[in-house]
Structures are given as C-alpha cells and as structure tokens.
Design goal:
alpha+beta, Nucleotidyltransferase, domain 5, Dna Ligase, domain 1, 5-stranded mixed sheet
C-alpha cells in the first residue's frame, strides 16, 4: 500500500524505539498500527552511537510498515523535555507605508525575525508557538493573513534543543533510510492525548517513567510551566534486581515484567517464582514481596528527588494531580506509590486504541496526534524552521509519495504562552540548594500563591 497520507510518529527512547502509524485519508486520524523494539546506542536519552541507533530505528519502522502493509518515507519525531529550552521571542516588520494585505511571505518574514532574535548559540529551533500577532502594533489577531496592515508584530515562545543532539537524531533517522519531517516537543504531545481539557487548563503533572530517565513536566494553560529530570529509570530497576538476586540483566528484566510490583503491600511472601542464579545449577525460588521491595526502594529514591523540585514550585497544589505514563508505569501499584509519595491523586494513562494499549506508546501516539492537530499557521512556522522538507497542508500537496497529508485544528491562543520558570530547571538528577531553600518557604503556600508565582 503506497500511501501518501500516512502520519508516522517516532519515539526514540533509551531502552526502546516506538513507532505509531496513523491514516488520515478520511479527514480524521485513524491509528492503523504500532511497533516497538530495543534501542542500542542510547544513554540517558542521548545518542552515543549513531549506527546502532539507526539499526534500532530501521528495525522498528520496517516492522510497523510490514504490519500495516505500508511504505514509510518520513517520520515526525518527539524531542524529550530534557533537551528542550523555551525562550520568549518577538519579531516586528514593516509591511507597506500605505498598508496592504498581509501575505504568507510577510508572516514568514516576521517569524524569521522573531526566531533569529531569540535563538542562542549551540541551539536549534524545533518549534515556535505564536501567542499573538499584532496589526499596526495594536490589533491582536490569531492569523493576520489577508488583513490590511502597515506593520506586523508576532509574540510567541521558541522551543530549542542542542544542535549536536538534533544532528545525531537526524543522522540516525537518515542512516535508517528515512527522513525526519519535523520535531515536536514530547511533553506537549503527551499532554494532547493523556490530559483532558480541564487538566491541561488548570494544571497537571505528567510523570513519564522511561527506561533511561524519569521526567516530571507541569502543564498549565496548555503550556509547559516547569520540568525536572532524574537520570534514573526502568533500566536502573532492572540493574538492581540483577545485582541483588545475582542474575543476568536479561533474566532480571523478564521477572520485573512478569512478577514486578511497585507496591509491596499488594504482594505476598507465599507467592514464589524461580530465578536463574549465576553459579547455581538449579533456579532459586524468590517471593514476589522481596522482589517488590527491591523495586520499591529504587522508586522511592527517584520520586524523592523528583518531588523536591515539584514541591518547591508548588506543583502538588495543582488540581489535576499526577498522570503517569511511560513503560515503567506498567508496574503493579505504581499509582498508589505516587499517591503516597507525593500526597496527590494519581492515575495511569495508556492509549485505548487497538494495538496501543500499553503506556509505552503514550509519547508515540501523542506525537501523531499533535502533528495531526497542527493549525494552518503552524505550517508556515515549520516551513521557516525546517525549509522545504516539511510536508505541506493537504490543499497544497502533490501526490508524491515523499509527501504526507497533515490535517489541522484551530489552535487556542493560551496554548502559546510560557513563563521563564521553566528554564530555571536543571536537567539533572539533583535539585539545587536554592530550590531546597525555597522548598521550606513554599511548602505552606496554597493555590492562590501558586498562581501568583507563575502567572502574574
């Protein structure tokens, strides 16, 4: 099936690559397949061997192409929060002294001005989220095209990532035999499918339990407000099991998936299973309660570090609580542990589409949904950032198999705002001393103080 209207979302994780394929032929997005496979050449969310990562990407995309009987040419790739930085950006251009209609080219010119002004050395733009366009410095509009103007101004948020990391991702995709159409910010992609409108508006924490790292992102008014990262994840739980039980990592991963509980209170010491122990001729019987204690110890350490940053930013006062996703969220009782450790309500998200009913596919599903939902003005933004390689809107698209169709939604202006607090986050597993000091001061602040701190 040589489809020109396929949308393929790629999620390159430390321990696994996930791909989700959607068909948009009927003016609505329909998931038609997904696949995953182990990742090689990645460490803590970054590529350390391009060729190995390319092989991992190729294997998964070939698998999903075969499952869907489709040919895949391009992908849209998620960029994790650990690589993201947000900058306020403003651009201003003159249209014509006597005024004339604003064209696509005028919008592109003002976007170039805004992006170039905000872009920092060593970083590359992946997305620009317009907050507002101003006609002649006073009329606030969502889309200025075909309006009469003497000058055009844009205010928005520029999302960037390190140039070196983006180069490595692109190169790995190219060596796999595909082309990256454009990048999308993974936290916003996940929020588009994991949170309902109220949760995105009034505030929710997305806790992504990945293989190589654990991230917590605060979403409020449809934008990223704060993020914190811990460089420990599911692979560290596997390593703990391997060391404590004196078994191979492959065996440790298997028993984690089959018998692992995050909450020891849900287990019984009477329930036992065999484990192949190094140096032993026969398997050793281990009870599920003991295994759960090993898992829980690592989770408590990780959540303790993640929780410090969230607490210092009063994120636990947000009404949406915590939405848990990522591969490790499949551990039994993980939502109860989060509730107890953070003192908030928590739930696990997994897509409900056929073939996606696993938390590991949350990011890949979010990427295709986010790309599918782009507004028409976002295509102009992407053409400025990515050039001619970006697939054009349906109405302007040829039937070439290299192109894909992307349908569009009307974007809410509130989705395009941001506060400087996000960039104060340290993308490490520790919280700074200033955050720890603020922790004591902010501990007793209520929801009123939270809104004052972030949104005044």
């Amino acid at each position: 099936m040589d489809k020109t209207d396929l949308l393929v979302g790629l999620d390159i994780g430390t321990t696994s690559v996930k791909a989700v394929v959607a068909d948009t032929a009927s003016n609505e997005m329909q998931i038609i397949g997904a696949a995953n496979g182990p990742t090689k050449g990645m460490r803590h969310g970054k590529i350390v061997d391009i060729d190995q990562t390319a092989e991992s990407i190729s294997a998964v995309l070939k698998k999903v192409a075969q499952k869907t009987n489709s040919k895949i040419y391009r992908v849209v790739t998620g960029i994790p929060v650990g690589l993201l930085q947000l900058e306020n950006a403003v651009g201003l251009i003159n249209i014509e002294e006597n005024g004339r209609e604003v064209t696509d080219n005028d919008v592109k010119r003002v976007l170039v001005t805004a992006i170039d002004t905000a872009l920092k050395d060593g970083r590359e733009a992946i997305a620009f989220l317009p907050n507002k366009f101003l006609i002649d410095g006073k009329t606030d509009v969502d889309d200025p095209r075909k309006m009469i103007a003497h000058s055009l101004e844009v205010h928005g948020i520029l999302l960037t990532a390190p140039s070196a990391d983006l180069h490595n991702i692109r190169k790995a995709i190219e060596r796999a035999g595909y082309q990256n159409n454009f990048f999308v910010p993974t936290p916003l992609a996940i929020a588009s499918v994991a949170l309902d409108e109220g949760e995105r508006t009034f505030g929710t924490i997305i806790l992504d339990l990945g293989g190589g790292s654990t991230t917590a992102t605060v979403i409020h008014e449809n934008k990223i407000k704060y993020a914190t990262i811990d460089l420990e994840g599911g692979i560290d739980i596997t390593n703990d099991i391997s060391v404590v039980l004196n078994t191979s990592k492959k065996e440790a991963e298997k028993i984690k998936l089959q018998f692992g509980y995050a909450d020891p209170s849900l287990t019984s010491s009477d329930n036992q299973f065999p484990v192949n122990v190094v140096g032993e001729n026969s398997p050793k019987m281990i009870d599920e309660e003991y295994l759960s204690e090993i898992i829980n110890a690592r989770l408590d350490q990780t959540f303790s570090r993640i929780g410090k940053g969230l607490k210092s930013h009063d994120a636990f006062n947000l009404p949406g609580g915590v939405v848990i996703t990522g591969g490790s969220s499949a551990l039994q009782g993980i939502d109860d542990i989060v509730k107890d450790d953070f003192g908030v309500k928590a739930r696990i998200f997994q897509p409900d589409q056929m073939g996606l009913r696993n938390p590991m596919y949350a990011a890949g599903y979010g990427v295709v949904n986010y790309a599918y939902s782009l507004a028409d003005i976002d295509y102009l933004v992407n053409s400025v950032i990515y050039g001619n390689q970006v697939a054009t809107p349906v109405s302007n698209q040829s039937s070439s198999p290299e192109n894909m169709k992307f349908f569009k939604r009307r974007l809410t202006p509130s989705e395009m705002e941001q506060k400087e607090d996000y960039n104060k986050t340290s993308a490490t597993s520790t919280v700074s001393a200033s955050e720890e000091n603020d922790d004591n001061k902010n501990n007793k602040k209520g929801i009123k103080e939270f809104f004052k701190k972030f949104f005044d």
